[in-house]
Structures are given as C-alpha cells and as structure tokens.
Amino acid sequence: MTEILTLPPRCGVVGGGRMGAGIAHALLLAGCDITVLERDGEAAAAARDRVARAVQASAKRGLIAGPDEPMSRLTTVTGHAGLAGCGLVIEAVPEDLDLKLATLRAVEEAVGPETVIASNTSSISLGTLAEALARPERFLGLHFFNPVPASRLVEVVIAAATDPALRDRAAGWVAALGKTAVVVRDAPGFASSRLGVLLGLEAIRMVESGVAAAEDIDAAMTLGYGHPTGPLRLTDLVGLDVRLGIARYLERELGSRFAPPDLLVRLVEQGHLGRKTGKGFYDWSEA
Length: 287
Description:
The protein is of the alpha/beta class. 44% of the residues lie in helices and 14% in strands. It is built from eleven helices and eight strands. The chain has helices at residues 18-29, 41-60, 68-72, 97-110, 126-130, 165-176, 192-208, 214-224, 231-238, 240-254, 262-269; strands at residues 10-14, 33-37, 74-77, 88-91, 116-119, 139-144, 153-158, 180-185. α1 crosses α2 and α7 (192-208) crosses α10. The longest helix has 20 residues, at 41-60.
C-alpha cells in the first residue's frame, strides 16, 4: 500500500481554466498554499472566481468549515516569477504541444532545481514534453479528471527520464488529496485517454450512422455497463474541440482507429463544443 506523503506546502498551477481551477481547489482543501498563474489580470481574476465557487460548494457540502481560510491561501499571478518557492508546479494549459513546451520551459526557468514539474496533459507523450526541460528527471504526468472535485482518480505518468523515486512520491501526493493513483508508463494517450477516446469516437460514429440517439447510447453504457456518465455526455463535458484534438494526435501516433468521425469535425467547425458553448450532443443552454 502506498504511504501517504505530505504534499509540498506550496504548490503552483499554471492555467486557471476549468481543470486548473479544479486542481487548485483540490490542493487548497489538502492544506497547501496555492499560486495560480494566468496570462493576464482578467484571466487571473476569472481563475480566482472559479476556485472560489468550488471552495464555496465544498463549504456548503460540509467538507470544510468555511471558504475564507482556504481562499486566504490562494494567490494569483501573471508572471512565472510568482512560482518561485513552489515545491510542485502542475501545468494545466490547453492541449497544444507548442504551448505546453513553451510553458514548461518558462516554469523550469522560474523555479528551483528541486521543484517537481508535472503536466496535466491527457494524451501528449511525456517524453516529447520533457524535451523542453533541462532537468527531465524532475518531470512527470499528473493527469486529473473532470470534474476534479468529484473524480476519485489521478493518472500518474512516468516518463523514461523521470526519477524512479518520484513514482511513490507522486502516488502519495494523490492519496493525500483523497484520490486514487493509477501509475502508467509514458505512451500516447496513456491508459485513460486511449480507452476513453476510443469509446467516445465509436459512440459518435454510431450517432453519425443512425444506430441510436445519443441519449440511448449513453443509457446503454450507464445502465448496462455501470459507467457513471455515457461517452457522448462525457464528450460534451470535456469539450468536443478537446476530444477532436486528442483524436487527431492519437491518430498520428497510433493509427487510423483513432481517426475522428466527420460528425465530430463538423460540430467543432460549427462551434458546437458541448457544455461550454451550450450545445454539443446535448442541449446545455439552460444548464
């Protein structure tokens, strides 16, 4: 059994969108001081608001005494220098290779040599991302799942250059967050995205060819197989654009079985990206 290890007292999160805010929320509830880095003041304020809403929801559910104390430990910054002193920095920027490479390079330049840098990438090879770093032995993947507060899983991804001792440390940190770690070797899509995206793409093909409606396909998986969420509803929650980007990357790396269906491409081109735009495979306009 993995020993529960104490998280670094101060952690950083780069990117305060839905995933980054969720990661910051989880770390705050675990007692860490958190610095969230965003691109400008407006984005930083929006990130703080996202985290505050999540913390308030935790207080309403009785998970914490109140939101004031956790929020007092949250700092938002717009420059990488604000990450100095963090023992762990988690990159949670959009799933774009060039953006992630530039982000990781800038983070490493701003932090100390003992700082562990992790990527929340859901599909990009850690070996590719490690090429941006001078100290790849301090780098690994910590793939959180959406929504972070409700998800019980974190995928710990070990790259070829990762210090072997980080495996147990990272699994211990995940346990300290009240979640379960699955440890996988670096490969495109790792374990979760590789399987989840393949299921989602096949579900989209079934809608495309008229096999069944989205609601019925999802019901088959939730009621028949015990999945908590159907693959099409999950695609809406993740974002059709995110799913498309991952599918194209996995198609390049692993072959045609990950080729995105024409329906997915058309919906993204039309701006129907799921919950965040109000429409995907479901109508989210009143959600």
